[in-house]
Amino acid sequence: MNRTRLKPRTLVGAVAVIALTALSLQGCAVVNGSGDDPNTLRVMMGADTTYPEERKQWQQDTAAEFKRTTGADIQWETYSSAQEELTAIQTSVISGQGPDVYAIGTTFTPTAYATGAFVEMGAKEWKAIGGKDQFDPASFGISGPSDSQQIGIPFASRPFVMAVNKNLLAKAGITDMPTTWDELTEDAKATTGDGRHGMAIAYADGFDPWKFVWGMAQNAGNTIVSTDGKAEIDSDAVANAYRTYFDWVTKDGVVDKAAIGWNNAQALAQFTEGKAAFFPMTTTTAINSFTDTKVDGKYEFALLPTVPPGASERPADGIEAASILSGDNWVVADYGTKQDLSFDFVKQLSAPKAQLEYYDLFGNLPTNADAAAQLAADNPQLKPIIDAGRLSKPTAFTGAWSDIQLALVDVVVQSIPSLKGGEVTDDQLRARLEAAQRDAQSTLDRQKNGGL
Amino acid sequence: MTSTQTRPRTDAAPPRPVRPAGKTPLYKKERPLWMLIPGGVLMLAVIVVPLLVGFFIAMLDLDQYTLRQWFSAPFVGFANFTEAFTNSPLLHSIWISVSLSVLVTAVTVPIGVAAAISTQNRFPGRGLVRSIYLIPYVLPAFVVGTFFRTMLQPQGVVNSILHTDVLWLNGSASYWALAGVMIWTSWPFVYLLSLAGLQAVDNEVHEAAALDGVTWWAKLRYIIFPYLRGPLSLAVIIAILHNINNFTLPFVLFGIPLPSSVEVMPVLTYIASFQSFRFGLSAAMAICSLVIVAIPLFVYLRAVKLDTGDDAGPNRKQRRADRATLAAAPTAADIDGARA
To answer: Residue B65: which of A114, A206, A420 has the nearest Cβ?
Structure first.
């Protein structure tokens, strides 16, 4: 009888095939995961790169509490960018299966609404999460197109404010916080010198620039998108906003020239090194980043100005918008079969205790009214931020907003070489505003269902 | 039980096999074509069906509003293609992508060949040098992009070393920055294929050249380069395709929106899809990209005749030549007659 011996190569090949098969099967198991398990809730939320350990611990604690109260498990899934978030939603919307609950950014809520894939909250649904009146009314600004058509359940608030270096202001003899954009520019000039700059700005950031322009335009009464769906970018108010924003680095000299290549983290670094007096466009999530730096104990928060550039008081039609309405909303997928569990989950995290814990860990302000009141009472230094939350205004509730936001940022991106050259001419600015106007209007014109 | 067949020995050259007229050639006979079915089904499922779906989507007005019922989204025919060419930066992005690709490939080929030749002869530490050469290729593109993004900042390492104040990540210099980073990451691929080509050069050829006292340039020009022609052609075509399709590097280096001087096709398609949610338009752009990419691929396939089925049998030209030879060749009877 012949005895066949396995050659080493055959053996290695066989092991490789078995390993690959096992991995594939495991992969399938992960992909399918709890999709069909009625006792496991799939929750998708953005990854937290600033506090990853805290996020992990929070997820474990939340899942344990959920298990205790409902007997069900939670499977956490994360996305690291808005694009990844959309891809997950796209796949789920088309296939009719995927995460049961999503935490989405407020500015993404209109796009999510446009897909029609999320539960519109009615009396029954609000009751299931513990009632609508538990939330701060201001936090519903971007939950849906109207009070009766809402998909977003407010979860966290991150209004934008200025961080201010008190020492640098005191050295310059500034005692009151600026309330107009012109005052801010003047105060920044007064604090510039000795290797320091008045403001830390991130011109190359993918998000910051449009928020400045949006805020200044709102203060002048321009909402970027009118109520009848017309883009209002190619206007004096928006041009004035861009001009002010550009002049800080080209003309006023209150911003480090290197800032034309910075993102928000680099601007924050300049502030924490004590080299900038004002750090506009930051949120409470930056508090931990200020700890143990040169500005620890020397900074405070202040409202962003609400009077438009070139004016000493807000015009009659100007909007007192201190910040965009920023934060996270929960949305519940309507294709899922675990909606009761989904609402139980949202109810758990809407309670004051859970909201305050979330603030302690991540610096996001509560949307629960009682929790917010308690936080304000316990932390007087947070008053400007809580005020900013109250004065936050939503961006236009349209599925076209993402494109409009991109058009606003693109004006800055394409102007950066000119910023480096020291001047963005009026002709250049006008041409870019016209291009942005065309893009935005074209997007608005393509809207279906009235943009919803 | 096995049987052994022995060919009759003759002093004369063996006659060419004669195929009776009208009979099916061996390479066409009894081919087990059914064995292609699994591969065919796989190809259908993995390539053909998604491609057809892509074509279908390119003809729909598919966006965030119609995504959920995507199959019944408004049919717009070729409107997305028209818009892509007339009312989007597609043509500009094609120019950017193709020019970058050609530039990067043209620079990486000599670098890759030189690197391969430099490590052809044995020397202490050759393995280490070869490994180091591969580092840019094995690093994930995302990591490379992040490194270079940091180094190319206005106050970054690159400007410090060069004593310059160039804005590498925006404006016209961003084109050269992207080209430089692409060159850095892609030359090892040309090096690898060149190295494979060099391994194919027989030692006898080197010895013969040495015996004949051939100069290094003549050896390179008339011996080495002809051997490298095949692998290098493959390297060039794959490098061009890879460079045209490079998404990660520009995306990580510049973010979104891109400076207009580096508005490459893959990122433009991505923005249309995931920023503007114009899935129909982006599918049309992707198909245009496919056509652009298919041109050099087609040229290459024609050049190397990979599609002629040489493995199955001789090509038409060869078969015609064979038939002519057969007709002119003496038959076995002729040979026997001549011997007699």
So the answer is: A114
